[in-house]
């Protein structure tokens, strides 16, 4: 009898404690989802494969990015299936604010320096003032310093400019997609037929397989014209592996270049013919300044 | 005179009843701290909602997980994405009661033991936590400090970062709750 009373008393108490929690949770629906809930980690890295993603390092974070593309897989055993012909790009990206990032890089393909400004114009969010997509604007320029012999080319003719709107949506916690309308202006092109102005549209996705492993892909469709006729669209498929402060991205792509001016209008490889470059991006984040 | 005394007495009763009612806040503070030789991780959350019923000694908390602010962007991202999975489990909650509670709460800081269910990452565990309660200037001050082991809440820490994240995390709770108006109009 006493035991029964004790049990009843206990369960009544447990009931009451949950009641208070319920009261707390129902009392303030306004404050439980009070502010804008900005969607984070649409993509794991600032790059997807070839393409940049809507992500930026965040305020006070310096990102060091190492990118490699080996030679084509179909170049045979003599070249160890491409491992003998690597191209490399090193770059730094620094988040001035959570929205604004400056970046600079150097790749050995055509001895190219590049610099970019990336700005998160809109951020996907839920709650008050919900936003369905993230939009990041990217402006980059590239300068090739390759010697051309005599007569040497002017500085202006070595420059290329790229403008992109990166539009992304994290559809679920596992799946994110991105659309990239692109405009590239090249001050100087190799042949008379080639276009100085190239328009392209890209698409990319990320599907998480586990918490730290994801499948990725990106593709660029160059809008019809002389450039589209003589070059191929860039395709990449890969995986993202995250380990603490590093993100490893391993991929296969038909483009060897790692900046927009190379992989969008100058891709020659035929993916389905085995002109596939194995490559990786490795990034390491350093906190330069605390956020708080 | 007699009438006046009765009035004063009933007023005092009413006031004390008021003072022993429910207290709540929506801006409570919860901090946590993980210390390892490699790095210290700390985060603060100032959007904690809490309610304490001083007539029954019951306590309830709800903690929006995404509101934890870290020093590093990446830590905050990993916390939400990889560890507590805030999309799936947006809130941590606590529902419990002060052990051996006898109203009214005396003046001055009172050391108490609170026992109840702590739910983090969808895992509910019964815990007992020491803390203090104090009525000061019509507000209720609540303080508590306790240890939480991520593994107890199925928060998996991969081998590669195991040296960076402590096995047990120190949690600090500090809040100032205001009395809840007895009859709350419902919208």
Structure summarized in a few sentences:
The complex is a heterodimer of chains A (292) and B (187). Helix content of chain A is 13%, strand content 44%.
Description:
The complex is a heterodimer of chains A (292) and B (187). Helices cover 13% and strands 44% of the residues of chain A. The termini of chain A are far apart. Chain A is mainly beta. Chain A is elongated and about 85 Å long. In chain A, the strands form 2 sheets. Chain A has a 12-stranded antiparallel barrel. Chain A has a two-stranded antiparallel ribbon with strand order 1-6. Chain B has a single domain, classed as Beta Barrel (Lipocalin), CATH 2.40.128.110. The mean pLDDT of chain B is 86. The N and C termini of chain B lie far apart (44 Å). Chain B: InterPro entries: Lipid/polyisoprenoid-bd_YceI, TTHA0802/YceI-like_sf. Chain B: It holds the Pfam family YceI.
């Amino acid at each position: 009898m006493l035991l029964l009373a004790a049990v009843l008393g206990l369960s009544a108490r447990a009931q009451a404690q949950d009641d208070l929690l319920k009261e707390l949770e129902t009392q303030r629906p306004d404050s439980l989802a009070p502010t804008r809930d900005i969607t984070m980690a649409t993509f794991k890295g600032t790059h997807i494969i070839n393409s940049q993603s809507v992500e930026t390092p965040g305020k006070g974070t310096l990102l060091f990015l190492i990118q490699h593309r080996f030679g084509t897989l179909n170049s045979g055993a003599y070249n160890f299936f491409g491992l003998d012909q690597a191209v490399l790009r090193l770059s730094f990206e620094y988040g001035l604010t959570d929205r604004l990032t400056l970046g600079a890089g150097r790749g050995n393909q055509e001895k190219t320096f590049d610099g970019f400004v990336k700005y998160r114009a809109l951020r996907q969010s839920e709650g008050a003032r919900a936003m369905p997509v993230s939009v990041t604007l990217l402006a980059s320029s590239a300068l090739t310093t390759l010697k051309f012999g005599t007569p040497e080319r002017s500085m202006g003719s070595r420059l290329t400019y790229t403008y992109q709107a990166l539009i992304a949506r994290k559809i679920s916690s596992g799946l994110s997609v991105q659309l990239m309308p692109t405009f590239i202006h090249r001050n100087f092109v190799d042949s008379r037929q080639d276009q100085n102005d190239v328009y392209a549209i890209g698409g990319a996705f990320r599907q998480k397989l586990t918490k730290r492993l994801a499948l990725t892909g990106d593709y660029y469709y160059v809008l019809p014209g002389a450039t589209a006729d003589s070059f191929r669209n860039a395709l990449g498929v890969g995986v993202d592996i995250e380990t603490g402060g590093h993100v490893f991205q391993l991929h296969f792509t038909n483009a060897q270049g790692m900046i927009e001016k190379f992989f969008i209008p100058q891709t020659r490889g035929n993916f389905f013919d085995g002109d596939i470059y194995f490559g990786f991006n490795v990034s390491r984040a350093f906190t330069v300044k605390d956020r708080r | 005179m007699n009438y006046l005394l009765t009035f004063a007495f009933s007023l005092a009763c009413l006031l004390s009843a008021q003072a022993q009612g429910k207290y709540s806040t929506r801006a409570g503070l919860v901090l946590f701290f993980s210390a390892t030789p490699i790095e210290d991780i700390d985060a603060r959350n100032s959007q904690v909602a809490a309610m304490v019923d001083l007539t029954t000694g019951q306590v309830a908390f709800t903690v929006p997980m995404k509101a934890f602010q870290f020093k590093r962007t990446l830590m905050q991202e990993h916390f939400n994405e990889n560890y507590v999975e805030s999309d799936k489990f947006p809130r941590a909650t606590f529902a419990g009661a002060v052990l051996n509670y006898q109203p009214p709460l005396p003046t001055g800081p009172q050391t108490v033991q609170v026992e109840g269910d702590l739910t983090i990452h969808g895992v509910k565990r019964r815990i007992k936590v020491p803390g203090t309660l104090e009525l000061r200037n019509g507000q209720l001050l609540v303080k508590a400090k306790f240890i939480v082991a991520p593994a107890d809440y199925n928060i998996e820490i991969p081998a590669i970062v195991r040296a960076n994240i402590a096995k047990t995390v120190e949690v600090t709770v500090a809040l100032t709750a205001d009395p809840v108006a007895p009859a709350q109009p419902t919208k």
